[in-house]
Each structure stands twice: as structure tokens, then as C-alpha cells.
TrEMBL record:
Keyword Metal-binding: yes
Single biological process term from Gene Ontology: intein-mediated protein splicing
One Pfam short name: Radical_SAM
Keyword Iron-sulfur included in the entry's annotation: yes
PANTHER family in UniProt: SLR0285 PROTEIN
Keywords noted in UniProt: Iron, Iron-sulfur, Metal-binding
Single GO MF annotation: metal ion binding
Region Disordered, annotated ranges: 584-609
Domain named Hint: residues: 37-129, 301-349
This protein's name: Intein C-terminal splicing region/intein N-terminal splicing region
Amino acid sequence: MVFHEVRAKSVLNGVPGSSLPFSWTVNPYRGCSHACTYCMAGDTPILMADGRTKPLAELRAGDRIYGTELVGNYRRYKITTVLAHWETRKVAHRLTLEDGTSVVASGDHRFLTDRGWKHVTGETSGTGRRPHLTTGNKLMGTGAFVEQPTVTDDYRRGYLRGMVDDENEFRIPLADIEAMDRTQEYLDYFGVREGRGFLHQVRELAHWQIAPNPDWLKGFLAGAFDYLGTCSRSILRLSSRNATVIEAISLALKHFHFDFAIEELRRRRGVRVVRLRGGLRENLRFFHTVDPAITRKRDIDGVAIKSRQPLGVVSVEPVGEMALYDITTGTGDFIANGVVSHNCFARKTHSYLDLDTGRDFDGQVIVKVNAGEVLSRQLRSPRWKQEHVALGTNTDPYQRAEGRYALMPGIIEALTASRTPFSILTKGTLLARDLPLLAAAAEVVPVGIAVSLALMDRDLHKSLEPGTPTPAARLELVRKVREAGLPCGVFVAPVLPELTDSVEQLDFLLEQIAAAGATGVTVLPLHLRPGAREWFAAWLRREHPDLVETYRYLYGNGSYVDRRYRARLAARVTPLIEKHGLAPRGRSTDAVTGVPGDDDGVWPEGSLPVSVPAQRVDQEQLTLL
């Protein structure tokens, strides 16, 4: 976890023209320190979209890499984008596979096996019970990536030699700008200019080596592939009429222990083809060993992931605490040292449960250390009209970082001193620390408090909201807020169709909320905004594939669940609300359910200052919901 301490010039943010029941917000943190559970060693090579690799620690948001997607019965490689990148410190474990592949990751990290996703470590019984890797489990992928070549003078000379298919000419491939640029770069490096004596200089540089070293051979194979090679349907070939070139290619491949066949092309008399054997695993080893310039020839988008490689688990051993890294991607996974690795659940679950999903979310937290001081100054302005200020609309003000920086007491005191009504929306149980301050504030100004609580199922909570306060802890927070004499509304959001929407589940949840003393409740079905939609779809396919078609039917291509489902949910919730004494005063019970854009779904009673009308909930604008 990295905290960037800044001195803000302003912390009071306007919300012009919104449909929300407030016009101002205060967010003392940018990002969130709720726990990230999945992470790996920084030197883990990640498969990039251009076919090369880059250490996990060096990735940045916006980088294009390979993930996977399930298409029919096969999982296939798919180009995706890094949405976030962060660093933490955790106890790590070294995972070793049959073929020698080694990966260092946290015990919570998950890898794809031929039997589904499994954590690195776990227990077979008790509270730590979960699917985890054991000896004999087989991971999915190609196995370890090899190190990419260093560009030396010999590599450059070998590459230029690979561009020569005929002793009497030297051609720069005109179809691919990458090969043109590399060739020109290497010629410039050696001081070769077009004009008189050009071909002679090239021959001097690119002459055959009697005893070529590995760097020269790597460069030669890279140049030969750029000039003569193709890779289609996972079949890598190099073809030429020049017998000397074919022999040189064969010798170079043998040096690096590649298996290949030499074939004659019937339709092109005199052309011989060197075909690499071994499928995608050997193709990637070739690309990473020699590094051709032309990236389009290295494309594996859509290629199926097979389980033919010897990737059985040999051992999982602890290696102590160390710096670890992780990313969030558009597909929810990535390729780490040749095996399919899950990215952090916390990223996208936050985006649709009730947390901000900024790119620096929980690994790079910006802390406005002077938030209370700046807010106090802004609220003393003669132009300030004591309008409702909301906290928790973008990032949770009671995230774990608050335990270290304690910014909220100063903020509460500034709002109270200026007689500004305010509200807090949180899932953080640290709010209990400030209950005396909040109770004193409520004697001076109207105060609203709301807690979000999505579900009661412990296993589902661990899957969707890892590292966040448990449902039981949040219910206890509601109880403490009410015992302090303060109002507390509860957002039951999101309700997941077919997962958390049964009468029994809702009845038990609402019973617990009522027993905790909540002043009101609003029930909201899952809202799949862009970003959250892609993550949830991947999660659903992985964890509940039998529900994929149901969700397609309910959501189609939109963010909102079908209106008929909303009507059924409202019919199911309304009598339960009445049963547990949570019906709103002075308005229809129907107002406790809704979705973004509906006129009926409103903020739960107690969540807003008493002076603020209970407007409808707009999840499009309220990130925490």
C-alpha cells in the first residue's frame, strides 16, 4: 500500500445540475485502502498484446495485454487493457510446476486449472476452506516464458543477415513498417547509408558466420522470420528457394533445441518450408527467444487455450513477506509466466457493489492530509449557504486509511462549526470511533447516516467483497449508530437475481437489519454500468455458469435489469418491509425498491439530513451504490 500525502487547496466539490439530494461533496481520500487480496512478484513476466513480455511491476494502466474469454466450450486468448496497477506487501508462496515453471504469488491469488479457478493456498475444512492448489492439479497455459534477447552488435548483424535472401540483393520489407524501421535503425547504427557501395557494406555486415554465437543466431532468426516467415492458425513457417538460407535456419533452430520439419511446397516449385513443431508453446518460445520486429505475425488473439503441457503442481512453498503487485484488466485475468492468472476481485466488485473504481484505487491512495483545515476555511466564506454536504459519494471516508490519518474528526468539526447539514454513506466500521462527535454534531445540525449491506451469505461475501467488513460487522455498526441516538438508513444493494433475491434470503436480511434498529431501508437490484458489466459477466461465467443465460435475458445489452424483474422484486420485498417494521413513514412502501432512473426508488429514511427531501436514488451518479 502506497499513500501519497498531499496538501489540497480545496476539498469541497460542487455537483452541478445533478439529480442527487446534495450539491456538494467532500472526499478526503482518492482511492481506497480496503484490502486487495490477489498479487504476484514484480518480476513475473506478463504477455503483452504485441507478443512480447514485460515484468508485472512495470505495467501501467492503459497497457494492452493478453487475457482470456470463454467462447463456447473453449477459453481463448483475448487482447485486453490494464485498468489499474498497484503494489502491496504480503506473505508470498512459490508455486513450482512439472515443466519447471515457477510463479511467486500471495496465498489468496488464483490460477486457472483444468478443474476451474483455485487459490494458491487454503484449508480443507473450517473457515479457511476454499478451492486451492494441491499436488497434481494442472494449470492452464503454455508454461514459462523464456527471456527476451539483448540487442547486441552481433544480434544486429544477424538480423540484417536474415533480411538477405539472395546474395545479390538486400531488401527492406515494404509491407511492414516495424521491420522497415528496425532494419533502418540497425543500418544507421553501423553507419551504412544508401548510395555507392551500399550493397558492399551490407554484405560486409551481414556475411555468414563460421561459428555464430547465440546473439547472432537470435538476430538471424528474427530477421529471417520478418522477411520469410508467417504464423497462421498457430503454425509457424519460414519459406525460401535459397538452400543456404534454409540450411542456416535449420541449424539456428537446432541450436535452440526447436523441433521442426522441412517440407516442399507443391504449388510453388523449388520453395522449401521450415515448419516449427510444438504448437503455441513453441511458437511463443520462438518469438521470445529471437524477438521478431513484426507484431502482427505474433498475434494469438482467439487461439484456444489447451491443457497439453506438463503444468502439474509439484510444490507450493512459503517464501516470506515481500513486495507484490497486481493489476485489473478488462477480462478479469492475464497471462503470468505462461499460465492464466486471475486479477484482483476487489477492483471490479467495488465498481458495482458500492466502492469507487479509480485506477489508483487501493494501491495508490492520495490522502488530503489538510482536509479538515481546508474545509473549515472554505465553510467560513461569506458566500457559503450551509447547503447539504455528502461524504462517501465517491470513496469511502471510513476506509482503513482513516484509521491511520484520522481526517474525519476534523471534517465533522468543520461542518458542525459552520452549521452545515451533512450525510455519510459508508461500509467502514471505523465510523463507530466518531459516534460521540457525530452525536454532538446532531445537536447542532441535521445529520444523516447510511450503511451499505449487500448480502448475508459469508461465502458470497468473500467472493464479491474480499477484505471488506463482514455483513455481521456492518450490522453491528448500524446497532451502534442507533444506540448513539443517530438515524441510520441501510442500502440493500445490489440484490443479485437468482443469487440473493429469494424470499428466504431477503426475509433473513431484512430481519437482521430491523433487529439492528435501522431507521429505513432501500432495496436496489444489481446495476451493471460499463466496466462492472464486463467484470461481472466473467465472474458469473466462472462461478455460476448456469445463470449466464438468465442474466443475458434480464439485462440484455443494457445496465438496468428488466422492468418485469423489478416489479417481481418489489412485490417480494414490500410485504417483508411491512413485516419487519421498516415501512417508510408518509410515503408508499413501493419507494423502498427501485433502480437508476425509476421514480420510486428513494434514499432510505435516516440516510439524509432531516431537512433534505428523500429524492430518488441515481446510481449512475452515485459511485458507492
